[in-house]
């Protein structure tokens, strides 16, 4: 009798309130992932960063979308396909120094500035991505 008050509706968004949802779900997060790599491919300021990536970037774009989806509070696609991200371990074969970190953040900050209107969300994302990028330094 009271269970109807304590169960989630089948139509309720399981990601409501998450950054994933605030960014527009799959379309918004996929646009972020793709724009990130568009900038990397077109901006000479990040040529060295682009050189670290296998070409063409199609599969990398997809994996980045999968990662961002879960990292931002949405579906855990990356974990389902590849297991725990172990980002630092996966990136150990690549020399990631402060210059690479800065180039990566240059691309990501541009994406955030272009695609995120909410000031608080923009600040949160910048802080989270900055922390993540610092963590990746291995040289």
CATH superfamily: Globins
SSE arrangement, N to C: HHHHHHHHH
Mean pLDDT: 93
| Major sheet size, sense and barrel closure | none
Shape annotation: globular
The helix count comes to 9
Proportion of residues in extended strands: under 5%
Give helix % range.
55-70%
Which secondary-structure class do the elements indicate?
mainly alpha
Instruction: Give the CATH class.
Output: Mainly Alpha
Number of strands: 0
Distance between the termini: 61 Å
Q: What's the domain count?
A: 1
Rounded to an integer, what's the Rg over CA atoms? 17 Å
Low-confidence stretches: none
Topology of helices and strands:
Layout: H1 3-6, H2 19-22, H3 25-42, H4 47-51, H5 58-71, H6 77-82, H7 87-91, H8 98-115, H9 119-136
Binding site for heme: 134
Protein name: Hemoglobin-like oxygen-binding protein
GO molecular function: heme binding; metal ion binding; oxygen binding; oxygen carrier activity
């Amino acid at each position: 009798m009271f269970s109807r008050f304590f169960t989630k509706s089948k139509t309720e968004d399981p990601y409501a309130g998450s950054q994933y949802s605030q960014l527009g779900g799959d379309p918004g997060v996929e646009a972020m992932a793709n724009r990130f790599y568009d900038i990397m491919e077109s901006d000479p300021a990040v040529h060295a960063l682009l050189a670290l990536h296998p070409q063409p970037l199609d599969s990398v774009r997809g994996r980045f979308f999968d990662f961002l989806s879960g990292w931002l509070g949405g579906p855990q696609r990356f974990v389902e396909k590849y297991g725990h991200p172990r980002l630092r371990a996966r990136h150990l074969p690549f020399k990631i120094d402060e210059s690479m970190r800065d180039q990566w953040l240059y691309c990501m900050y541009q994406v955030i500035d272009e695609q995120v209107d909410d000031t608080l969300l923009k600040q949160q994302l910048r802080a989270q991505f900055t922390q993540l990028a610092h963590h990746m330094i291995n040289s």
